[in-house]
Every structure is written in structure tokens, then in C-alpha cells.
């Protein structure tokens, strides 16, 4: 899945690089909270572990085998921020030392395999573990998270390919091929992730970040046999968890406007640069005189098709509208999910 | 454990390229990759020129061609993908040896093949002439966040240990007659991965405590201050500089 140089247009590579840098910056802040002063040694160790695990080939179906991506596994074992950092470091090392994945495609690789796969995996994991508790739920959630994160990453790849791929293959074909293969790989990834997490849970449950709430509360037994049931431990737990929630909400307060502003800049500003001149395929099409033979897809007459070149909309505005629609759909989904979990908690 | 640290990536030597400070080489390789990717795919001559530049670097650094070729194996999956492109590509088709190939697919295959190959060659040369630790020190001097550099350093240090641990587990599995043939064997591999995680995490905790007891305060001491002179920057800048000059020159003529 490591994208080489020359696979995406420079505009897409640069934009993905900006997204990757922003994501890694956020993860650097967050990882300090997850790992305190042990951040560097332990994250380095997990990065080496992810690198090693990516070399484990597993049989998918007759004749083909896949290898673990590790995003979901890392997120569940050490937390999402550290996982993003670890995968970014793994990709950096693979790019610079092993020449695996192009240097100019590092942004694309980190965005897809680091940020998208970890975020999707963590979101799915949280959704499942919120609705059900217990060790079985954690294992099932690991399976679902890994299963969904792999095709989601493939979908992200297809989206980038649609925005600025250099190969003249229909987007539908790419989506079908990537989706099909990666659904299969996702099943293998889900199985391995689930069994790995359950193995670690059985031996050292304290090491699984995603199962922190599961540890049985401490019971202090006095000499007379009276049990002071975990009151201190629970109080301590509450005292730790409440400020953490508050800070996360406060952080989201500046993060959301900043993210929206960055999206707007990218969609409205950078897209001018992205499509100021026809891309390589369009240019060849014009040179060879078969541009008029190309058939647009079903939405070709909509005002947003070809990012506004046909419907009379400026390119940047089309980009802004696209980003806005995406934000509205995503935000709506998020709000719906959140309301449901709140109702679940109340009931 | 003493013999496990010979990185097959790195070819020790004492050439002009080996002696350059790592930050110069790092910046040069990244800029070179950017220039290559920005070149329009129709300009065949330029790509030949880029290849010649890299060949010159390889000759100066005395990196044998066989070593480069072996390290190029990383690229194989994408070569297969590129070979498939002319068959599955859309648009105008041209007959060739009785096969119907897509013109746009041929262009895309050429584009990916040549740019990916040049990129891989450049990074293989960087890794071959620079000690991995020095590359990271160079990245730190180029103002990469120090936490990120530290994580990468620890990763490199642990990598051999963890890979050796994994190899021992594989030998143990295979000496008991295990071979991963189909989906039913996935749980065995997954349990190995779980055991590997626990063993490496516990080792990491021990190492961290040992480091604390030796005065680790959250950052590694820098032993050698490797600052680069402007002359060294100029030498390293030759690679992307010549490439960029050629690109701009052809652009001006076109």
C-alpha cells in the first residue's frame, strides 16, 4: 500500500503533506498526555513493534497473502495519538532507510495509513465499547475496528486517486479493485488484531489502552476481614477522568474552527493551483484529440462536476461547497451518533 | 547479540559522499525527488539526465551496481501495477504485437515507473552512504520535531532486538511443524504477535527504568555537533541544483 513517487499529482502530494504535518503536530501534543515522560522510548518501541508486525504475512485466500497495516492494533494497544505518531515514524523510516514508499508521497502515505486508518479504527472501537462493556466487547470492538479501518483506508486512497491520480483508470474500477482486495485483507487484519488484543488482555490487561476502564477496582482487606471497597481507587479514577474530559472538550474548542479554516484554505485556495492547468491526462487527451470522445460520468452535467469548470462556478467555490457538504454530512453523522449514545447513557 | 547490528542498508566507506554532513544529503535527496516529480513525463531526455546524475553519485560513493539492483526489489509491486496499466487503462488504444494497449495507460505506466525508480535510487543511495543514526541527527538539524526524531531513534535501536525476538518465535513455530497455509492458522500468528508485544513492551519498560537510573531526562545528549560548512552545502546541492537547472533550461526552450 506504500505509494511511490509519481503516483499522484504534485498538488495532491503537497496538500496531503500539509494534512499529514497538521495531524502529526496534533498527535505530538496528544501523545504526551497518553504516555507522559515515557513518550519517546515507549513510542519508539511500539513503532518497532508495528514495523515487525507488518512483516508478518498471513494467508488471506487460496494463493494470496496480505500483511498487517497495524493502525487499528496500535490505536487499541497504546492509544490513538501515540498510534498516529508510531505509524508516521514507521513510514518515515521505511521511506528514508528502506526506500519503501516515495519521499514526495510521504504526506499521502502518512495521511492514509497513519491518520485515516487510526482515526477510523479508534472511532469504531469507541462506538462499540461504549454500547457494551467487558473483555468480550473489547475483543469484538478490536475486530470491527480493524475490519472497517482497512477498507476505509482503501476508500481514502480512491478519493485521493479521484482528486489527482496520474493513472488513467476509471475511478469505479479503482474503487472496486481496492475495495475488494482490502475487504479481504480487512478480515485477516480484524482476526489478527482481535486475537492479539485478547492475548495481551489475558496476560497484561493494564497494557491495553482501549481497555483501561476494565481493570477490577482495588479491594483493601483489613486484618479483621473488613473490605474497604475500592472507594479510594474509584475516587482517584473519577478525579483523573473528569479533568481529562474537560481538557479534551476545551481543546476541541479551538481545534474545530482551526480545522474548518484549514479545510477552507485548502479547498478554496489550493484547488486554484491544483487545476489551474489541465492535468497530464487531460493534456494528453487534448494533444491526441480524443478529449471530445471521453464520456463524463452520470453527474457530468451537475454544476459541481469537474470542480466547476462546466457549471460556471469558479473552481475555489466548488471546492468550498464540496468541503462544506462533507463537513455537514460528517457532522450530522457525528451528532446523530452522539445523541444516541447520550440517550443510551440516560436510559 | 553482538553480531546483529550490521545494517545491510548501510555501506561504510570514506568517499566524498560518505563524508558529507547528513543534513545536506537529506535535503539534497528530498529536493531531487521534488524536481523529479515536477518534471512533465514527455521530456524523456531529462529523465535520462537525472539517471546519469544518480549514476555519477553512485560512482563517486563507490556503491556497486549489484547492491543498488538488489535494494531496488522494494519497487516490484508497483512495477507489476505499472505493467498492468496499459491493459486496463481507458481511452484511445493502439495495437502492439497483437495486443490492444491503452495510450494513456502507457503514458501513466512510464510516468510511475521512471519517477518511482529515480526516487527509490536516490533514497537507496542516501541510506547506503549514511549511517542510520546520522540520518536522524541530520533530520534533527533540519528542525524536524525532536520528539519525532527521538521516537525514530528508539525505533532503530529496538528494531534489531524485536526482529530477532520474532525470528526466534518463527523458528520455534516451524520446528514444531507449523506452516501458515490458510485462514485457520491466523490465530497462531496473532498469538505470536500478542506475545511479541508483551515481551517487547516489558523490555522497553526495563530499558526505560535503566535509562532513568543513568540520568535520562527526556532527551538524548548530542555527542558530536555536526554543523555543515557552506562549501559542503554547495557540494550536496549539486545533485538537485543540476537537475533543477536542466528542468528550467528545457522549460525555457520549450
Automatic annotation (TrEMBL), chain A:
Main location: membrane
Subcellular location: Cell membrane
Domain spans labelled PDGLE: 258-339
Domain of life from the UniProt record: Bacteria
Keyword Transport attached: yes
Record-linked Gene3D superfamilies: 1.10.1760.20
Organism: Streptosporangium pseudovulgare
Protein name per Swiss-Prot or TrEMBL: PDGLE domain-containing protein
From TrEMBL, chain B:
Localization, UniProt: Cell membrane
This protein's record includes keyword Membrane: yes
Segments traversing the membrane: 43-61, 68-88, 108-130, 233-253
Keyword Repeat listed: no
Membrane topology: Multi-pass membrane protein
Coiled-coil regions listed: none
Keywords, alphabetical: Cell membrane, Membrane, Transmembrane, Transmembrane helix
UniProt protein name: Cobalt ECF transporter T component CbiQ
Organism: Streptosporangium pseudovulgare
